[in-house]
Design goal:
Chain lengths: 495, 158
């Protein structure tokens, strides 16, 4: 009952006309910024800090929460239409979203993304409200061994999706981790695999690899498959409406992935990326038509989209209740809060209930705006695919370039982008999946750091990973996630 | 001597990469103080894992869809063949990277976009130029004026 009363109090704040205007402006600006490759939620939020500086803290945070949601949804749009995920959390959406767009179902893919984001966000706000204090305790109990095991599970779950060859999936994952450790080792200050280049000291940015492996490789691949101006014009948008059977089909994946995404988001460091990948792999396993994932299955869009939005909300749990940012994005939010004079943490609920409950209530409203704003815009956005193919290919190239250069201002990164584009083309031609490489690249550093911290705690004793029950359980799940598909394959062969 | 299949060729290349990677891992300086795990351990584990996976790949039968071939189409010259188009695009992207700062974002991007569009076979040159220039200018103004992201101006005054 307390939660309900508090929520009503929060709505009282969020429904003030000025705050409604802020939610609307935030969602709108976030969606536009998120669509531009290279400008994800972190950039969007960072851009908002000077604007929110002088605002009432509750209004400032309400505006920023709207920007955060909007940017994640905007990222899905470029994933679906251009196969150019500007944000790590929307990579999994491109696996089925882009094939759907190529089949002329871009409108449907974007509509599913909007509905799934809405439901994922709303479900997780309910969870946030009810179980935030309890969950924050669980999240704190995760030490380095548990994090390492969680990262291993996240990786194996994605590798196990490699239908054609598990070995090639594992190779892609290993290469991804290899790329992630290029640069200065933050624990010892030692240079690793920089080849004496100053530009590599900071490592290789996710965006350079993601745009190269996905977007640039896609351009090369289309050129290789005869991508001149000869393709007949197509109906790129298709219908936005979902049939009753389609709604039924995605209802399960959305509800399951929303819950999974929320719990993943609560864990610091896990966030929207692992949430979306785990949601995708879980649904692929559970679906009867799991073998059609990657070819434009609607469940393959619904699951990661609901999971990533739910994880975004989940990541507010450690931020608001512990003052610990669980991701780069919430770290920026923490900075913004401190600038506004609010100290998030266990005392925040008592000291600033207006900020805490106002933000939770504004998340409900933000989700509604996300849907109301984005659905009518879909036909307009999806027009991109009606463009003649040669023009579209060239514009994707320019988008990739501006995305990379605008982030790092480095010509060297543009050349790296080209290198990764060619690597992506090679991987595609020889049947190596790209998803494990990207996820491994994102997780590689955290994985190594967790492993080394755990071993430092245990004095170099590797048994720490199996002595801790949570870590052991996660590692067993990781082994099972690799072993079960192998057994399935063997059985199929035997039959 | 039996001919190697695609997977076996790939496995050999990967084994070479793993060998080079491991050789470099051994050159990573270790920390003077004794510690349970140093900067070189993780790369060594990765190098050996890649080597092991290369061995597994060597003995794996390639699937039918393992290596996709490019669609052959009657091309007038090697430059306009599918592989020709990929190579020209790669060279154009490299040239763009090198010209971006001296020529400026607007000029370099318009040249790249309009030039490649025409090269890919789009013949409506005015529409091509107007669209590419419009998109490039919109991106440029959004980034520089709204987001405060610096992009090189090059030879143009703005």
């Amino acid at each position: 009952m307390d939660a309900l009363n508090n929520l009503m109090y929060g709505f009282g704040i969020a429904l003030e006309p000025i705050n409604i205007a802020y939610v609307f402006a935030g969602v709108f600006a976030g969606t536009i910024i998120g669509m531009l490759p290279g400008l994800g939620p972190i950039s969007a939020l960072a851009l908002m800090i000077p604007i929110t500086f002088a605002m009432e803290p509750s209004s400032g945070l309400i505006l920023m929460a709207g920007v955060y949601y909007g940017a994640i949804f905007g990222g899905s749009t470029s994933s679906i239409l251009l196969n150019a995920p500007g944000v790590a959390g929307t990579v999994a959406t491109s696996f089925d979203g882009y094939p759907m767009a190529k089949k002329g179902m871009a409108g449907k893919a974007l509509a599913i993304a909007a509905y799934a984001s809405f439901i994922g966000g709303t479900v997780s706000v309910v969870f946030l409200m009810l179980v935030a204090p309890l969950l924050s305790k669980v999240a704190v109990s995760f030490g380095p061994p548990e994090y390492f095991a969680l990262m291993v599970l996240g990786l194996t779950a994605v590798v196990s999706l490699s239908d054609k060859s598990l070995v090639k999936g594992l190779i892609a994952a290993v290469v991804g981790i290899m790329i992630s450790i290029v640069g200065i080792d933050l624990q010892t200050g030692t240079e690793r695999y920089t080849f004496g280049s100053i530009q590599l000291l900071d490592g290789i940015d996710f965006l350079v690899v993601a745009l190269g492996i996905f977007a640039l490789a896609e351009v090369f691949y289309m050129l290789l498959r005869g991508g001149g101006g000869k393709e007949a014009p197509r109906n790129a948008i298709g219908s936005l409406k979902l049939s009753r059977s389609e709604v039924k089909e995605i209802a399960g994946p959305i509800s399951r992935s929303s819950v999974l995404g929320f719990f993943t988001g609560v864990l610091p460091g896990a966030g929207a990326t692992i949430g979306s990948f785990l949601g995708y792999s879980m649904e692929k396993r559970l679906a009867k038509d799991g073998d059609t994932f990657g070819q434009g299955n609607i469940k393959g869009v619904a699951a990661p989209e609901s999971a990533n939005n739910a994880a975004c909300t989940g990541s507010f749990v450690p931020l608001l209740t512990l003052g610990v940012p669980g991701s780069g994005t919430t770290a920026v939010l923490l900075g913004a809060l401190l600038v506004m004079g609010v100290n998030p943490g266990p005392m925040m609920l008592e000291q600033r209930p207006d900020v805490f409950w106002g933000v939770i209530a504004s998340m409900y409203i933000g989700n509604i705006f996300l849907l109301v704003l984005n659905l009518p815009l879909i036909p307009l956005i999806a027009k991109i695919l009606d463009m003649p193919k040669p023009l579209l290919l060239s514009l994707i190239l320019i988008f990739c370039m501006i995305g990379v250069y605008g982030m790092s201002f480095s010509v060297f990164d543009l050349l790296l982008l080209l290198g990764f584009g060619l690597l992506g083309l090679g991987m595609r031609l020889f049947g190596f999946p790209a998803a494990p490489l990207i996820l491994a690249l994102i997780l590689g550093n955290i994985m190594e750091e967790s492993m080394r911290r755990a071993l430092q705690i245990s004095g170099g004793d590797w048994s720490i990973f199996i002595d801790k029950p949570i870590s052991l359980a996660l590692l067993v799940l990781a082994v099972l996630s690799l072993g079960l598909p192998l057994l399935k394959k063997r059985r199929k062969r035997a039959v | 001597m039996t001919r190697l299949n695609t997977n076996q060729w790939l496995a050999l290349v990967l084994a070479l990469v793993a060998g080079g990677y491991l050789a470099m891992a051994w050159q990573i300086p270790t920390f003077p103080l004794p510690r349970p795990i140093d900067s070189d351990l993780f790369p060594k584990v990765l190098g050996f894992t890649l080597l092991l996976l290369a061995v597994c790949l060597f003995f794996e039968t390639p699937s039918a869809a393992g290596a996709e071939e490019a669609e052959e189409e009657p091309a007038t010259s090697p430059l306009f063949s599918p592989w020709g188009r990929v190579i020209v695009t790669a060279v154009a992207v490299a040239a763009y990277a090198l010209l971006l700062v001296p020529a400026g974002f607007v000029l370099a991007s318009t040249l790249l976009g309009a030039g490649l569009t025409a090269f890919y076979g789009y013949r409506r040159h005015v529409i091509n130029l107007v669209t590419v220039l419009g998109v490039v200018l919109a991106l440029y103004l959004t980034m520089t004026r709204v987001m405060d992201v610096y992009l090189p101006t090059g030879v143009l005054p703005f």
